[in-house]
Amino acid sequence: MFGSGYLANSGIIPALIDREDLVLIDELAHACLWAGARLSRATVLPFRHSDVAHLETLLAEHRGRHPRALVATDGVFSMDGDLAPLPELAEVALYHDAWLMTDDAHGIGVVGGGRGSTFAHGAKVDVPLQMGTLSKAIGGYGGYLCASSAVIDLIHNRARTFIYSTGLPPATAAAAIAALDLIERDPAYAALPLAKARTFTRLLNLPEATSPIVPVVIGEAGAALKASQLLEAEGFLVIAIRPPTVPAGTARLRFTFSAAHPDAEIERLAAIVRQRILER
Ligand SMILES: Cc1ncc(COP(=O)(O)O)c(C=O)c1O
């Protein structure tokens, strides 16, 4: 455990990867994976979003010049809610002797029967470095890494954000354990956020949700902000995500669904979005 997800990603990558190494990172990966990659001082090459062929080309061209390589991606992307193609990424990474690291902040607790993106593709994908945060579905605070005991030993001794920052308060750890117990005991409950998101995408004829995050791209930042304010006045907290967090011209409303959202409210929300935002 680290103090937060941001601290985890900024500590894990520099502990495993050095100046002479290579990091390949999905262009839409979360800012803290980028921070960790940059702090490692390795050569950092972005690959096009979820484009396995592009990753393969970069690895074929560059892998031989670096002692170690790491492929970093979100398991569920934070602004689009889509799943990374983990089975294919794992195969390519293994072939090129590169570590695969996923950031499962938005996967743990809500996809793959609650077990996260590693389990969201049918058979379990072999991901040697699985990072995540307790700050989303777990409802708490703190970042984690799941890896082999040899890697964890190394992290304990080398990750600066682990060694030089205070650990979690016991109450926070206890709350996280209680949340994980709930998710483990009741997979039907863990499946609810995605089911609710799918109700919403079905009502609006959007592509079927693959996670509880559903983006509705509005375009200009001002229009997205106005739409967000309109929804707030109706009692819905839907954040407008604007550049530079997303590319210019793709400002969006980012809907996130929880197990607690009543279906009737999702229907009311979809009707407002259709009539007062999309059809205007
Ligand atoms: C994909 C992703 N990774 C990491 C983080 C950072 O985690 P934390 O809030 O625990 O620092 C976030 C957002 O908070 C996130 O969306």
Keywords:
single chain; alpha/beta; six-stranded mixed beta sheet; three-stranded antiparallel beta sheet; 42% helix; binds pyridoxal-5'-phosphate
Give the overall average pLDDT.
Answer: 97
Distance between the termini: 47 Å
Using only C-alpha atoms, the radius of gyration works out to: 19 Å
Which class of secondary structure composition applies to the elements?
alpha/beta
List of distinct ligands in this structure: pyridoxal-5'-phosphate
Strand ordering within the main sheet: 2-1-3-4-5-6
C-alpha geometry: globular
Number of helices: 11
Strand content: 15-25%
Order of helices and strands: HEHEHEHEEEHHHHHEHEEH
- Uncertain spans, ≥5 residues at pLDDT below 50? none
The amount of helix comes to 40-55%
Please characterize this protein's 3D structure:
42% of the residues lie in helices and 16% in strands. It is an alpha/beta fold. Strands 2-1-3-4-5-6 form a six-stranded mixed sheet, sandwiched between helices. The mean pLDDT is 97. The protein binds pyridoxal-5'-phosphate.
SSE blueprint:
Layout: H1 5-16, E1 22-26, H2 31-39, E2 43-47, H3 52-62, E3 69-74, H4 86-95, E4 99-103, E5 129-133, E6 143-146, H5 149-158, H6 160-163, H7 170-185, H8 187-190, H9 192-203, E7 213-219, H10 221-233, E8 239-241, E9 251-256, H11 263-278
Parallel strand pairs: 1-2, 1-3, 3-4, 4-5
Antiparallel strand pairs: 5-6, 7-9, 8-9
Helix pairs in contact: 1-2, 1-5, 9-11
The structure holds pyridoxal-5'-phosphate (PLP).
The site of pyridoxal-5'-phosphate (PLP) has 13 residues, from α1.
